[in-house]
Amino acid sequence: MYCGANHGGDERFLDAARDLGAALVAADIGLVYGGGHVGLMGAVADAVLAAGGEVHGVITESLVAAEIAHGGLTALDVVDSMHQRKARMVELADAVVVLPGGFGTLDEALELLTWNQLGLVAVPVVFYDVGGYYEHLFRFFDGAAGAGLLRPLHRAMAQRATRVDEVVRLATSPPPLTGPKWTDESSSAAAKAVVG
Length: 196
Description:
Blueprint lengths: L10 H16 L4 E3 L5 H12 L4 E6 H5 L9 E5 L2 H11 L3 E3 L4 H15 L7 E4 L6 H12 L5 H4 L2 E4 L2 H8 L25
Parallel strand pairs: 1-2, 2-3, 4-5, 5-6
Helix pairs in contact: 1-2, 1-8
């Protein structure tokens, strides 16, 4: 699960985090997350633990040193870097749910969508769109697909749910099918320039 290390300014975010934690336990699903006790991530972890569920955290040594680590988890892996953290979380999880968050949340979610797109993993990615928080992001995804920069089948990998029951259903369903990332593979041999 990816989400903010802050609660945000909308009480619906915190309510959704707690509801998600309870719903995961009710569906017999454990939680894998970033290992912190703060913000929405801490709220989901606390809700899962309070309902008797299992929580596996993955956190960097620097965040442990900053006293961000949750002290009451079922398991906590401490790794050296954010890259290791992201890789370990994906290794442990069967699906990813994205609650509201900032740069770090988007970094993690978009990287995992890219890994799906490239065929490195095949896991559902479900954005829990609380109060329309991700509306602009999904407009961007639709615009990228409309502009021919994102294949429609790859656009479909970013799934959107507005209710906790939808989140659980999508997260426990097979991920959308993918195909090659490149829309025009014939031109790749002629490409010589790097554009960034």
